[in-house]
Amino acid sequence: MSAKFRAGARKVIRMNDALPPLITALLDPTRYPQAVDRVELVETHGAWVLLAGDSAYKIKKPVRFAFMDFSTLALRRQACETEIRVNRRFQQHDQPATQLYRAVVPIVGTPEQPHWGVPGTTDAAQAIEFAVLMHRFDEASRLDHLCVRGALTPAHMTGLARRMALFQARATVASTSDPWGHPTAAMRWPRDNITTLRAALTEPADAALVHVLSSWAEQRFNAIEPLLARRRQKERVREGHGDLHLGNLVLVHTQGDDGASTEVLPFDAIEFNDDLRWIDVANDMAFAWMDLLNHGCHGLANVLLSAWLDDTGDVSAPTVWTFFASYRAGVRAKVAAIRMQQLREAGDAEQAGASLGDVRRYLALAHDIAHPPKPQLLITHGLSGSGKTWASSQWLAAETSGRAVRLRSDVERKRLHGLSALATSGSELNAGLYSPQAHGDTYASLLTRSRRLLAEGWTVLVDAAFLRTSERQAFASLAEEQGVPFHILACEAPVAVLRQRISERQARGNDASEATVAVLEQQLGWLEPLSDAERARVWPTPG
After folding, report:
1. Which run of H or of E encompasses 252?
2. Which of 194, 271, 350, 385 sits in a 20 to 30 Å window from 417, CA-based?
3. Using CA atoms, how far apart are residues 152 and 138, in angstroms rounded to an integer?
4. CB-based burial of residue 281 (10 Å sphere; 0-12 exposed, 13-18 middle, 19+ buried)?
């Protein structure tokens, strides 16, 4: 069943009152091929969207910006066709609820007396305009609205992370001859943001903040430029979404072998500029992360980033993340500045003032992303089945800075051996991935990654057993070395409960852990209890 907007869910939004004759004519419900009670208009700086019955018709505006050119009919038609192509990549052929993008529809006749043509016919040759035809969905299911209502969950974020990780793994890679994704291109758009903002903002305090952000972006870019080049060489630049904020993500209901479920579906990928779509995969994801911070969902931002890192194994992404996320906040500030200028030109001082408030909010967020709070280091402690991953998940979702990353030993062990998080290694007890050598390598890698993340301002939560005092002491020493607080999430349960949980987890087969009851029996012999000094560092377990 296709989703649709609730009646009256969205009011008419206009940048100015002087609508073109074509749009005015298409507000008439009788001009649509299906039964329509009324037509609602939503207007952005680049399009008019006509909401009619169970359909939405998106018509490009004949505008030209530095980043968007719809100035001719040919360019608008091409943009419509590209929009269909790039957004259908996120659809599933066996899930109708995900199939939002239907066709490019020609509009024929005259602007005053238009009617809808038939896709794929000679109507295209006589078209006076083109529109992207979409299924309407319930606007209340957009993630920005879910966030406002407090209905967005960690499960939604892990689902989004997994969907995007799978999508990015299949996405077309930028070739060595393509112009996209080179470090110079990565810096072009932050500079374009700054240029627009400098021209739009005249108050001294606003100008000073723009200057601070510009200086930070230049310094940060100089520091990460070699890494950006290496990431491109390692195929991290791909044809992505380009505009992955919460307003371009919607919760849809799907049907599978296990029954009905909900999934987060991206839509409205960028069609108007290849440079903005062929980007570093971390750049794409950082937009959604930034927007979660913008909506005050800091814990969910932690969950999204940590889940995406688990699913992709992209260990260098956190190093470039804040550069991309701060740039994304700048993008939203620039869009709000463009809107503000359009509203001022239309004489709407009240709405222009609201847009100025949006500009300032996004600039403040960009500054906060660039200057994070002091990090901390946490580790878990407990036998297999004691609830470490549950406790760390609860802590991650409740953390309030939005700058926390969880590292899981079960995931890191597999990553070091070229396996995905949910892959089965087939390793026997004390062999393969679970040999003493592999165990030591895993903890050493966790320590190295933690050191790097802490140095870059990320709070780190390491989800591992940490049964031996020496393993815990290595991380306590790292915290002291970095000058950050150190805490322990200690998890305990009766042995009979541990055995039951492990058996049930194995039966489900949906967790990175491959621990068996035999592993638990061995761990009972290795366990070195927390000392009094360590117990003083125990963080209250969520409950």
Report:
1. strand 249-256
2. 385
3. 15
4. buried
Q: Are 71 and 65 in contact (CB under 8 A)?
A: no
The DSSP symbol for 18 reads -
Least Cα distance to 491 among 530, 541, 418, 435 occurs for 541
- Are 300 and 397 in contact by the 8 Å Cβ rule? The answer is yes
List the domains of the chain with CATH numbers: 21-138 (no CATH), 143-370 (3.90.1200), 377-535 (3.40.50.300)
Output Rg (C-alpha) for the chain, integer angstroms.
26
Nearest-angstrom CA–CA distance, 142 and 251: 6
pTM, rounded to two decimals: 0.91
Tokens of 175: 């070739």
Nearest to 394 by CA among 539, 292, 527: 539
SS3 sequence, 112-156? CCEEECCCCCHHHHHCCEEEEEEECCCHHHEHHHHHHHCCCCHHH
DSSP β-bridge partners for residue 132: 58, 104
Residue count of the chain, please give it: 543
Report the interhelical angle of 349-370 vs 183-200 (nearest 10°): 140
- The tokens for 457 are 């301002």
Q: What totals of helices (H) and strands (E) does the chain contain, helices first?
A: 18, 14
Other C-beta atoms within 10 Å of 207: how many?
13
Name which residue leads in pLDDT, 256 or 204.
204
Strand 114-116 and strand 486-490: pairing?
unpaired
438-441: Cβ within 8 A, 24+ apart: 438/413, 441/416
Instruction: Provide the pLDDT for residue 509.
Output: 65
Task: Report residue 22's pLDDT band, with 50, 70 and 90 as the boundaries.
Answer: very high
